[in-house]
Amino acid sequence: MTTYQEYVAKLPAPRREAIQTLRELVKMVWPNIEETMHYRMPTYALDGHFLCAFASQKNYLALYIMPHDLLEHFADELTAYNCGKSCIRFTKLTDETLERFQRILEYAGKNYAKSALYGKMPVPK
Asked: What is the reported pTM?
């Protein structure tokens, strides 16, 4: 898959709608964000550094925050989710989940330069 359009075209309708909603949210929060495809999923970068990505997995959807140490700020809010080191896994994109993701994306974008991982995840050329 080389484009976002190819990626979403292969998804079932409910997943496609959820991924499209996430894409719109990312672009609303950070209008100048760069959209690319890396790791076989839509990825988003600010100033040449990965900020986030999302993917449709077999049993869930996932939002990845690339400077994963920034997710620690939201640890208390994420107890109801199945989380990995850098991802938040979910099966439904509810209004509550969207509001939470918006806060996380805003925080991550404003604070990614303060992350211990800043500069360690440049977007490949």
From this structure: 0.90
